[in-house]
Design a protein that fits this description.
Blueprint: E1 2-3, E2 6-10, H1 13-16, E3 23-28, H2 40-45, H3 48-54, E4 71-78, H4 83-91, E5 96-104, E6 119-126, E7 142-145, H5 150-153, H6 161-170, E8 175-178, H7 185-192, E9 196-201, H8 204-217
Parallel strand pairs: 2-9, 3-4, 3-8, 5-7, 8-9
Antiparallel strand pairs: 1-2, 4-6, 5-6
Helix pairs in contact: 6-7, 7-8
Length: about 220
Amino acid sequence: MRIGRAELYCGDAYELLPALGRFDALVTDPPYDFKATGGGEFRKVRGGMDQIVAEGLDCGFDIKIIDPLQFSSVIVFAHNDQLHRLLPHLAGMFRRYAVCIWRKSNPMPVANRHYQPDLEFYVHAWLEGFHPDGAMVEKRRSWDGKAAPRKDFNHPTVKPLDLMRKIIVNTAGNSVCDPFMGTGTTGVAAIEKGRRFVGIEHNPRHFETACRRIEAAA
C-alpha cells in the first residue's frame, strides 16, 4: 500500500527486504529474545506479557537482516540479554555505534529475579557520512518518558511517539525502513519529518492500525 511518501507491506520481512533496495536508515523495534515467564500477581491482572507470547514477540529476530550493503545506518531496539550478540555483529560491519537508553518513568512492576525493566536499550550504528544528526540537545544518548499504553493500539510494545521523533531526528538521510513496523509509530515519526518510509508488518491487525496512523500523519 502506498500512502504519500510511505510504502507499506503486510508480509514476512525476511522475504520482502531483499527486493526493496537500499535505504539510508533501518529504524526498528524487532521481537526481543527473552524469557517471558513469571510475573506473579501482576501477570494475572494485566495481559501484556501474555499477548507478547501469543504474538511471538519474545522469540528474537535474525540479526543478519542488519546489513550495511542495504542500510547506511541502523537503529535497533534490543533486550538486555541480546546485546552480547548484537554489539559484536554491529562492530564488525559499521564504522561506529552507540548504545542509547530509554528510561521509563512507568516501568512494569515486575522483576522475575532480575532487575525491574525500567531501561530499554537501542543501538545506533553507522557508516562513514551517516553519523548521528540533530542539534546538540537532541544527541543525548538517553531519553526519559512513559511507555505507551497497550490499550491505545492493542499492541503490547508500542514505543512512545516522542521517542521515535527524537530517533528520526538523529538519523541521517532521507529514507527509513522498518521491517518490524508494528502499529506504525516509526512511520508516523518519519513522515512527520518529511522522510520516505517503507514499513513491513506480518500481523494483519497491526498492519491495518499502522496504515490508519500513517495516513493520518501524511
